[in-house]
Design goal:
The chain has 484 residues and is of the alpha+beta class. It has eleven helices and twelve strands.
């Protein structure tokens, strides 16, 4: 079973629970080791103290062979310290007095004494005291702890030895008490820690799961981010930083998708423009023929008033069609022609249907004179057309367009009485306050930069309406006109 198959919603809480359980077991083992060391040391020290004390008090009784007195001393000790056994051996290793007199009678056979006690008695012959701890074999009554002290005469000669031993494990009862407490308190602690760790683990992994769900839904058409992911990105940890980067990437992808849609729309519009230009060329020829027919009809004279009225209506209609076609062809041309007054008049013709459909009044104040201006006509027409159409779409009732020359600069101002709006050039088209991303203003800014000019779009006076001011430098040879 591979852990990689499981979700972090399972692995992290499970890891926290395992760590909690392992920590509890580690604390228990360390506590048991310290307890065993302390109990063993304390037991050995207590037996050594008993053997030392008894060796001092038994000296005179051994010297006078007062065995009954020795027996009473031993009994008083073992009554106060149950589980402890005492033997007093002669310097020859025979039993002089024992707490278990039935098993070890006075002056009995030394071979009946357990081997560990005999070995301990022999070691103390060269020293005043000794002690040892042995391994127990269950069910055989072996010795676990033992301590011995030599009984010396006043002259320093060995008179025998006092052996204090125990065949019970002092650690086991303590271990049982410790185990019962660990099971009780530890189980209670684990009952609290494990669910808490599980909940905390899932809480920690939840932001990562939210990020995963958002990443999985990225290819879909749903552009809305999970509100939980936005709250996750407000933190300072690694997952929050990753969420913030994902949100930034998500926004860039959405903007690129919107830009692709707008570019495709622009390509369709460009294709439509080329088709319209081709159609205009095709329409222009028969249009000219019809206008020539009307002109010839007038030259021959028209006697019928109804026919003359009809001819006048046809002439005005054909001229209007000719003007629209001329403006359309001028807008579509690519050659680097210079700007003049007729280009602005073409823009009036192109924008009037949009203004009429929205019942918007457009006022034009053109103060450019009749001569060509030393600036390319096509980009200027494109910029102004975008600004005028945007103003018509945003206006409540009217738009005012002013074009003039000041200090060798072309200055065009487009004002509308709609909602206040401001914009600045961005490397990538940005959505407007309504969430729409258009290429018109973006293209206008780019063309303005290419022409070396400036374009400022800001709210009008008293924050009502919007004013777009276009400033473009003219060629050095241009002499400003003073047309009013």
């Amino acid at each position: 079973m591979k852990l990689s198959r499981f979700s972090y919603l399972i692995k992290v809480p499970l890891a926290l629970c395992i760590v909690s359980f392992a920590s509890a077991m580690g604390v228990f083992l360390v506590t048991y080791y310290l307890l065993a060391s302390y109990v063993s040391g304390e037991t050995m020290t207590r037996m050594q103290q008993i053997s030392n004390s008894l060796a001092q008090s038994a000296r005179q009784s051994i010297y006078r062979d007062e065995l009954w007195d020795l027996h009473q001393q031993i009994q008083s000790i073992i009554r106060a310290d149950t589980g402890t056994h005492i033997m007093i051996l002669t310097d020859k290793g025979q039993t002089l007095v024992a707490s278990d007199a039935m098993t070890y009678p006075v002056m009995g056979d030394p071979n009946t004494i357990p081997a560990p006690i005999r070995q301990l008695s022999q070691r103390v012959q060269v020293g005043s005291a000794d002690k040892a701890e042995f391994e127990l074999t269950p069910g055989k009554g072996d010795i676990k702890y033992a301590a011995a002290t030599t009984v010396q005469s006043e002259d320093g000669d060995p008179m025998g030895s006092v052996i204090v031993y125990s065949d019970q494990d002092a650690v086991l009862p303590k271990f049982r008490v410790l185990l019962s407490k660990v099971i009780g308190y530890g189980g209670l602690a684990l009952a609290i820690v494990i669910p808490l760790g599980w909940w905390l683990g899932r809480k920690l992994v939840q932001p990562l799961n939210t990020l995963k769900a958002s990443m999985q839904s990225l290819p879909s058409q749903n552009n809305e981010l999970d509100i939980r992911l936005i709250s996750v990105s407000n933190g300072a940890d690694e997952i929050s930083q990753l969420a913030a980067q994902f949100i930034s990437m998500h926004n860039e992808i959405l903007r690129s998708r919107d830009l692709e849609d707008q570019i495709q729309a622009a390509e369709r519009m460009a294709l439509t423009g080329r088709i319209a230009s081709a159609l205009a060329h095709e329409v222009n020829n028969p249009l000219g023929g019809m206008m020539n027919v009307i002109s010839n009809l007038r030259l021959k004279g028209i006697s019928d008033p109804f026919v003359e009225k009809t001819a006048n209506l046809l002439d005005r209609g054909l001229k209007q069609i000719g003007e629209s076609i001329a403006a359309l062809m001028s807008q579509a041309r690519k050659e680097h022609t210079l700007l003049n007054h007729s280009d602005i008049e073409d823009l009036q013709t192109l924008s009037s249907p949009v203004a009429g459909s929205r019942e918007i009044t457009v006022k034009w104040d053109i103060m450019l004179g009749k001569d060509d201006l030393p600036i390319r006509a096509v980009p200027v027409r494109q910029i102004l057309l975008n600004l005028v159409l945007n103003a018509i779409n945003a206006a409540a009732s009217q738009v005012h367009v002013i074009a003039r020359i000041d200090l060798n600069q072309l200055i065009c101002t487009v004002t509308n009485d709609g909602p206040a709006f401001s914009a600045a050039f961005e490397p990538v088209p940005a959505p407007d306050p309504q969430g729409r991303t258009g290429l018109g203003l973006w293209v206008s800014f780019r063309l303005t930069n290419q022409l070396g000019g400036s374009l400022h779009i800001a709210p009008g006076p008293d924050t009502t309406g919007t004013v777009a001011k276009l400033t473009l430098p003219l060629g050095e040879k241009h002499v400003p006109h003073t047309a009013g």
